[in-house]
Amino acid sequence: MAKYFDVHPDNPQKRSIGQVVDILREDGLIAYPTDSCFALGAQLGNKEGMERIRSIRHLDDRHHFTLVCQNFAQLGQFVIINNAVFRAIKASTPGSYTFILPATKEVPRRLLHPKKKTVGVRIPNHVVVQSLLAELGEPMLSSTLLLPGEEEPMTQGWQIKDELDHVLDAVIDSGDCGTEPTTVVDFSGPEPEVVRYGAGDPSRFE
């Protein structure tokens, strides 16, 4: 059964955040709100957590997992960014964007796109997520909580707890969450390419 945490959206309770991070460190899988929609999260080194996300979402090995980072300094440890890309991403973070970039050796090989050796990264503009990341001290492996056959992610914490109780270890609820996933921009080619239109304004990358 998943533990249910009702967390204040503006002043997250330290005790609750600490308990969720303990679950992550014990190789747990969580559902949590972001500035776009609910997502699934696990600790970076949690191999079983990655497979559990694949199972829940029916993902193949070409799916880009996302490293949710607390800040730009952390993001820069895990992806390779040139100056032009740095400026473009810096101007759009924190926010509802995921950026696909070549990974550094800090990223476990199993998380990389098998051919391109890329990974998704993002810095969310969400108080609860930032509190989680600050306590965890490293990026969180993440994927949008979009179930197979559904067109939109679930928006209510209680609904997620109800439907996914048997496959999750914790659900964080901090009020209403959006239905639009992040806008995904692929910077691994010669020009930026918007590969998913979502909550972030894509016009600055087109």
TrEMBL record:
Gene3D superfamilies hit by this protein: DHBP synthase
Protein keywords: Nucleotidyltransferase, Transferase
Domain YrdC-like: 14-200
Enzyme type, top EC level: transferase
Pfam families: Sua5_yciO_yrdC (PF01300)
GO molecular function: L-threonylcarbamoyladenylate synthase
EC number, UniProt record: 2.7.7.87
Entry-linked PANTHER family: DHBP SYNTHASE RIBB-LIKE ALPHA/BETA DOMAIN-CONTAINING PROTEIN (PTHR42828), THREONYLCARBAMOYL-AMP SYNTHASE (PTHR42828:SF3)
The protein's name in its UniProt record: L-threonylcarbamoyladenylate synthase
